Amino acid sequence: MKSFKYFIEAINNPRIIMIGGPGSGKSTYSEIISKKLSIPHVYTGDMMRELAKQDTPDGKKVKDLLSKGEFAPTPIVIDAVKERLQKPDAESGYIFDGFPRSVEQANKMKDANIEYSHIINLVVSEEEVIKRLTARGRADDKPEIIKNRLKVYHRETAPLLDYYKDEIINIKAEGNTPEAIANDIIKKVQWNTDN
Predict the structure, then answer these.
(1) Which of 4, 39, 170, 191 is deepest in the core (most CB within 10 A)?
(2) Which is higher by pLDDT, 43 or 6?
């Protein structure tokens, strides 16, 4: 049973985890929600891509993994997230985009006392994902890398759905405008505080 204080906190300082496969729209919806709720968009993908540009041992390791469509090592991701949450703008809540990516990360997140109030799972068909990603045209959006990223997602991230199964809010993330889908998520976040 969650306390009254928890519900007030969850509404006033939403700490959202956005789960979804590559191309499910995590970043698009996170950006819109971040602006509407005035909370920072904590995007570990960008954080790791920035790190990959640095000529450091961690930077080189991350660059090598990302070039194959693999995930960055959990300790590096956890440290980057903890550092980001120290900034004053994160006091009023935040939205995690693509974090945690695995059950291992979810466990380490718990160990690091990184809190969350809502878990949104973006549900998108695989053919829609492939269509979106090939249209996006990023360097790592080549068909063979996309297929590998989907494989990695199913291997690493799909078990998270089981891990969080009693807390997940499923959102159909296709067939409507990004704005309408983001509004649907906000509505669920503001009213679905019973989990």
Answers:
(1) 39
(2) 43
Alpha-helix residue ranges (DSSP H) falling in 38-177:
44-52, 57-67, 74-85, 103-111, 126-136, 143-152, 158-163
The residues, ordered by sequence, that sit 6+ positions from 139 with a Cβ below 8 Å of its Cβ are: none
What are the pLDDT digits (tens) for 89-147? 999 999 999 899 889 999 999 999 999 999 999 999 888 888 888 888 777 777 788 88
Q: What is the pTM of this model?
A: 0.84
Picking from 91, 74, 98, the residue whose alpha carbon sits closest to that of residue 38 is: 91
pLDDT of residue 124: 92
Question: How many other C-beta atoms can be found within 10 angstroms of the C-beta atom of residue 110?
Answer: 12
Residue 56, both tokens: 């450091």
Average pLDDT over residues 48-77: 92
In 102-177, where does DSSP find H-type helix?
103-111, 126-136, 143-152, 158-163
Q: In the predicted model, is pLDDT for residue 2 greater than 70?
A: no
Strands of the sheet containing 41-43, edge to edge, are: 41-43, 94-97, 15-19, 118-123, 168-172
CA dist 174 and 23 (Å) reads: 11
- For 127-148, b where at least 16 C-beta lie within 10 A, e where not — what string? eebbebbeeeeeebbeeebbeb
